[in-house]
Amino acid sequence: MTLLFFIFLAACFAAGATGALFPTGEWYKRLKKPSWTPPDWLFPVAWTTLYLCMSYAAALVAQDSNGGIGLAFWALQITINTLWTPVFFGLRQIKLGFYILAGLWIAVAATTVSFFLVNPLAGWLFVPYLLWVSIAGALNFAVWRLNPEESALG
């Protein structure tokens, strides 16, 4: 179980490393954002917590012979998760970032449901991630709508 956890955690932190490669920078600071935008300090705290929960959930499911579909969805969601930061912050493609988040939401929802079917604790561990991706999608959409001049670029 411990080795499985650390393998999944390594995948999460590899996905999260895109944040160091493509930091928010001045471009993002200049964008108009909704009043309900979470404070900057919350993002690393939230992602660290989510990555720990996601990894533990995946390790639980990986121990079950019925976990194959759930793990396939897990792999899909972490792949899509990895795409968002380079697209939004690297390429500055706000609209495409929203579409990636929509796909991520579907993949996370499918992972959550499939995890619940194999191990209820694993499903519950994924619920905060689904909520966070919902907030991220709403925030990305709001930034897209509040910055039409930037959105026109992509």
Properties at a glance:
single chain; 154 residues; mainly alpha; Ferritin; 8 helices; 0% strand
What fold name goes in the CATH topology slot?
Ferritin
Count of runs of 4 or more consecutive helical residues: 8
On the 0-100 scale, what is the average pLDDT? 94
Q: What is the CATH architecture assignment?
A: Up-down Bundle
N-to-C SSE series?
HHHHHHHH
Tell me the radius of gyration: 16 Å
Relative strand content: under 5%
Task: Tally the structural domains.
Answer: 1
Summarize the structure in words:
With 154 residues, this protein is mostly helical. It has a single domain, classed as Ferritin, CATH 1.20.1260. 81% of the residues lie in helices and 0% in strands. The protein contains 8 helices and no strands. The chain is elongated. The N and C termini lie far apart (44 Å). The model has no long low-confidence stretch (mean pLDDT 94).
